[in-house]
Automatic annotation (TrEMBL):
Pathway: tRNA modification; archaeosine-tRNA biosynthesis. Its cofactor is Zn(2+). It catalyses: guanosine(15) in tRNA + 7-cyano-7-carbaguanine = 7-cyano-7-carbaguanosine(15) in tRNA + guanine. GO terms for biological process: tRNA wobble guanine modification. One of its GO terms (cellular component) is cytoplasm. It comes from Halobacterium bonnevillei. This is tRNA-guanine(15) transglycosylase. Signal peptide: none annotated. Substrate binds at residues 127, 195. Belongs to the archaeosine tRNA-ribosyltransferase family. The active site is at residue 92. Keywords: Glycosyltransferase, Metal-binding, Transferase, tRNA processing, Zinc. Binds 1 zinc ion per subunit.
Length: 497
C-alpha cells in the first residue's frame, strides 16, 4: 500500500484526512463525497460539481467500455476531458452490474488496463459483491475469489493510478475483518466496504455499522475507507462516525428523476411540499409549485442541484463537527430522525470500546441528549480510568456536598458516576446533562460506582444519591452504603413542620 493518506483530526473513529491522488496531482480532503456520473444520463454537468464542493467523482468504466461511442471518446479524449471534470476521478469496474445481472464480459486485468488507458485516477478490480444474506459457505467461497482477484490486481501495471481493494464478507463480521486484513496486506491503496448497498436500500443501518466496524478492525489507521453507495445525507454523520473517508452518491440524480427531494432527515416527494425547508440557491429562488410546473428536464436538473447542495452542506457540517469534537451529538440528532438510523447509531454504540481507542482525550463538552448517550465512548473511558484511583479510608460519593465524618469525598454525576472533585471542570466531566436524568444515565453512574468499589476492595464507600431508581441501585455493590439525600431532606422538612 502506498502512503497516500494522512489523518489530521479525529473524533472517535471519524477523521479529517488528506488523500493524495498522484495521477490527478491533487490532494482531496476527507470525508469526501463523490457524485456518481452515469455517462449516458448526465443530469448536472460534472464541470459544475466544484460549485457544490465536489473534489472527486466516480463513474463506471464498464459502461464506458461496453458503449462503442463512449469507448472511443474515452480513449481519444481521456476521461477528464470527456466528462469535463478537472478533479480526481474514480472508476468502478462493473461489479455492480455483476451483482445485478449475474455476469459481465470483462475481468480484473482487462478492466484495470482499460481504466488506466482512459486516464482514471483510482481504478477498481472486479470483485464479487456477495448478497448480504447469503450463507456462510457462499460468502467464504466468493470472498476467496475476490481475494484472488486483489492479488491479480497487484500484478497489473497501472503506473501511478491508485487501485481499490474492496472488502467483502457479507454480514459475517469475522469474515469482514479477515478480508480487510488481507486487503490491507496487499499493495493496493483504498479500501471500499463492498456489497452494502442492498443493506442501505432496505434501511438496515445496524448491519451496515457492524460490517464497516468489522472491516475497520482489520485495517490500519492509515487506510482510507470508502463506503460504497452511501449517498443519502441522512446517514453521512453515521458513516463518518464509523470511520468512512469516502462516500459516493447516485441518489442526487436518481431521486431527482422521480421528483424526490433530499433532506438530512429523509426524502420528500415534490408534490407533498408547500414550502422548501432549505436555504440553498434552488430553494431560495423557487417555490415547490414553480418547480413542479416546469418541464421534466428542467425540474429534474433543479432537484438534482438541490440534492447536491444539501448533500455537500451536510458533509461540511460533519467535517466541522469532527474538528470541534461534537460528531456524536450530530450522529445522535440525525439518528432520531428515523427508526432505522437509530438502529445504526445503537449498533455503533455497541462498539464503543473500539471507538474509544481513537477518541481524543479532550474535546468540546459532552452533551447528554438521550438514554443512548450513556453508552458513548467517553463514559466507557471514564469507567476504565476509575480503576486507576486508590481512595483510602471511609469515602463519600455524593451528589450533594461533603461531610466532616468521612476521610474523603468525591462527586457523583450521571452518567459518569464518581470522580475526584478536582476533575469537576475537566472533560468529559464538564458535560451538559439534563436535570431530569433518565434511567440509563443513573444506571451508567451506578456502573461507575461498582467499578471504583471493585478496584478498591479495602475502602469503605457511601453513596449519597438523589432518588436513584431501583434499577440503578441494584447495580451498586451491597457493601456500598447507599443513602437517598432527597429522602433525608424530605424527612427534615416534615420534622420542621
Amino acid at each position: 500500500m502506498r502512503e497516500v493518506f494522512e489523518v489530521t483530526a479525529q473524533d472517535g473513529a471519524a477523521r479529517i484526512g488528506e488523500l493524495a491522488i498522484p495521477r490527478a496531482g491533487v490532494t482531496v480532503e476527507t470525508p469526501t463525497l463523490m457524485p456518481v456520473v452515469n455517462p449516458n444520463l448526465i443530469t448536472v454537468a460534472p464541470s459544475r460539481f466544484p460549485e457544490f464542493g465536489a473534489e472527486m467523482l466516480i463513474t463506471n468504466s464498464y459502461i464506458i467500455n461496453n458503449d462503442p461511442d463512449l469507448h472511443e471518446r474515452a480513449l481519444e479524449e481521456g476521461l477528464h476531458e470527456m466528462l469535463g471534470f478537472d478533479g480526481a476521478i474514480m472508476t468502478d469496474s462493473g461489479s455492480f452490474q455483476l451483482a445485478e445481472y449475474g455476469e459481465i464480459d470483462t475481468d480484473t486485468e482487462a478492466i484495470l488496463e482499460f481504466q488506466h488507458e482512459i486516464g482514471s485516477d483510482v481504478g477498481t478490480p472486479v470483485d464479487i459483491p456477495t448478497p448480504p444474506d447469503a450463507g456462510r459457505e457462499q460468502v467464504a467461497r466468493e470472498l476467496a475469489e475476490t481475494q484472488s482477484r486483489l492479488e491479480l490486481a497487484e500484478s497489473v501495471d497501472v503506473g501511478d493510478m491508485l487501485v481499490n481493494a474492496p472488502v467483502q464478507g457479507g454480514t459475517f463480521e469475522d469474515l469482514r475483518e479477515d478480508a480487510a486484513r488481507h486487503a490491507y496486506n496487499t499493495d493496493l491503496d483504498l479500501f471500499p466496504v463492498g456489497a452494502v448497498v442492498p443493506l442501505m436500500n432496505t434501511y438496515r443501518y445496524d448491519a451496515v455499522a457492524d460490517a464497516v466496524l468489522a472491516a475497520k478492525r482489520g485495517l490500519g489507521r492509515d487506510a482510507p475507507v470508502h463506503l460504497f453507495g452511501a449517498g443519502h445525507p441522512m446517514m453521512f454523520a453515521l458513516a463518518a462516525a464509523l470511520g468512512c473517508d469516502l462516500l459516493d452518491s447516485a441518489a442526487y440524480a436518481i431521486y431527482a428523476r422521480d421528483d424526490r427531494y433530499l433532506t438530512v432527515h429523509g426524502t420528500e416527494h415534490l408534490d407533498s411540499l408547500h414550502y422548501f425547508p432549505c436555504d440553498c440557491p434552488i430553494c431560495a429562488e423557487h417555490t415547490p409549485d414553480e418547480v413542479e410546473r416546469m418541464g421534466d428536464a428542467a425540474r429534474e436538473q433543479l432537484l438534482a442541484e438541490h440534492n447536491l447542495h444539501v448533500s455537500f452542506g451536510e458533509l461540511r457540517r460533519v467535517k466541522q463537527a469532527i474538528k470541534e469534537g461534537s460528531l456524536m451529538e450530530l450522529v445522535e440528532a440525525r439518528a432520531h430522525a428515523h427508526p432505522r438510523t437509530l438502529d445504526g447509531y445503537r449498533a455503533l454504540l455497541d462498539h464503543s470500546e473500539q471507538l474509544e481507542a481513537t477518541d481524543p482525550a479532550a474535546k468540546d463538552p459532552f452533551f447528554y441528549t438521550s438514554a443512548d448517550s450513556a453508552r458513548r465512548p467517553e463514559v466507557l473511558r471514564h469507567h476504565k480510568r476509575l480503576e486507576r484511583f486508590d481512595p483510602e479510608g471511609d469515602v463519600l460519593l455524593t451528589e450533594g456536598s461533603g461531610n466532616d465524618g468521612f476521610d474523603d469525598w468525591w462527586n457523583v454525576a450521571p452518567p459518569f458516576g464518581p470522580y475526584p472533585r478536582a476533575l469537576s471542570t475537566t472533560y468529559p466531566l464538564n458535560a451538559e446533562t439534563p436535570t431530569r436524568m433518565d434511567r440509563a444515565g443513573y444506571e451508567a453512574a451506578a456502573d461507575g460506582v461498582r467499578r471504583l468499589a471493585e478496584a478498591n476492595p479495602d475502602t469503605a464507600f457511601t453513596l449519597a444519591h438523589r432518588d436513584w431508581p431501583e434499577s440503578a441501585l441494584e447495580r451498586v455493590p451491597p457493601r456500598v452504603d447507599a443513602v437517598d439525600i432527597d429522602a433525608g431532606d424530605a424527612a427534615d422538612e416534615t420534622a420542621g413542620e
